[in-house]
Amino acid sequence: MIRKNRKKVFVALSGGVDSAVAAALLKKRGFDVSGVFFRFFDAPNSTWKPNFQVGKIAKKLGISLKIVDARKEFRGRVIDCFVDAYKKGLTPNPCVHCNKEVKFHLLFELLKKYKADFVATGHYAQIHITHNIKHITRKKLIYAANYALCEAKDKQKDQSYFLYRLSQRELPRIIFPLGGLEKNEVKKMAKKLKLPVQEGESQDICFLGEKPIEEFLRKKIVLKKGKIRDIGGKILGCHEGLPLYTIGQRKGIRISGTGPYWVVGKNTRKNELVVSNDPKKLLTKRFEVGRVNWINQEIKLPLCAKVQIRYHSERISAIIKKGRSGRLIIETKKPVQAATAGQSAVFCRNSEVLGGGIITTHK
Fold first, then answer.
1. Catalytic residue among 81, 95, 98, 150
2. What is the mean pLDDT of each run of 10 residues along the chain (363 residues)?
3. How far apart are CA 16 and CA 150, in angstroms?
4. What's the pTM?
């Protein structure tokens, strides 16, 4: 017998173990679960079969499944933005952009259209709720709920870094069923339930498939060769096009002289790649961040927090200050290596993600 008052939730299914177990856990908890598979791109070197993997998972779980063709949105909001960023000499993180602008955007569109209560994914992250006094009247205290995005129990799989662009408006409607689990627990559950999931972990940049990023960029960007010089101005060689290089890169730099050399800068005006054979030149204790998002809008600056400048990098103590034109100035307690323009700097306090932004410059 189906209970009419069950909460309805849309779960994004990818065909992998994480999203499949997330759906299974929600069904076990009594939710009215509907699966959704977003077709973001045509799978490289293979024929896309929308009902093959996710269809078998939905059938096994006994849940409905919607197939959504989101190729247009993904191309415009992720792939095109990815290519444009590289054209500007940046090194973007497409997963950050995809989660906010495409995946959760489309999930919330479904939530509104079908009057669902929640959306869910297989991300390893947690949402904690606190109730603070909003104001006091003569008769009672008025409380307001605050939703905090926090790291997952499994620190190796934690994906809260990619989710810092979510807001207080969205978090109340999101469920992360795997946040309190270890990855090995999730695998055991999938095996016990005999879920027909794909093997292996998801790729860093999904739309590349097995294709090297250099090969992808060569097809998308008109590259212009230029000079490679050291920080003293000495010409050492010729580069193949600035978009093919990123700050901190060591391999693939074709130059003569005593190496190894690291990319420490790009002069887009002169089309020059700047390198150094001293890795300490990559260290900085000060950089700027733009396009900032705070999950809790009541954050006051200056702020003492920890900053993470790439996925799985160490969280470093820092002071976050107001800068010019809406940017923030980040001053770290100890040097960080290769603060790369285009990457995300995420601000944390204890296990909570406060927000973050896009690295613009470093000094």
1. 98
2. 72 95 97 96 58 88 96 96 95 95 98 98 96 61 80 97 96 98 97 89 79 94 96 94 95 82 94 95 96 89 97 96 94 96 97 97 63
3. 23
4. 0.92
3-state SS assignment for residue 314: coil
Q: Are residues 66 and 191 in the same domain?
A: yes
Domain residues for the domain of 260 are 222-277
Known active-site residue 95 = no
Catalytic residue (one of 95, 150, 206, 304): 206
Task: Return the closest-CA partner of residue 286 out of 359, 194, 203.
Answer: 359
The half-sphere exposure of 70 on its side-chain side, counting CA atoms within 13 A, is 24
**Which secondary structure element, helix H or strand E, spans residue 335, and what is its range?**
strand 328-337
Is residue 325 domain-resident?
A: yes
Question: Do 229 and 347 fall within a single domain?
Answer: no
Number of domains in the chain: 3
Please tell me the distance from the alpha carbon of residue 78 to that of residue 80, in angstroms, as a whole number: 6
Q: Which residue has the tokens 């896009």?
A: 358
Q: 159 and 28 in one domain?
A: yes
In this prediction, residue 225 carries a pLDDT of 96
- What is the amino acid identity at position 207? F
- Confirm if 118 and 6 have CB atoms less than 8 A apart: no
Domain termination residue (choose one: 247, 277, 307): 277
Asked, for residue 229, whether it belongs to a domain, the answer is yes
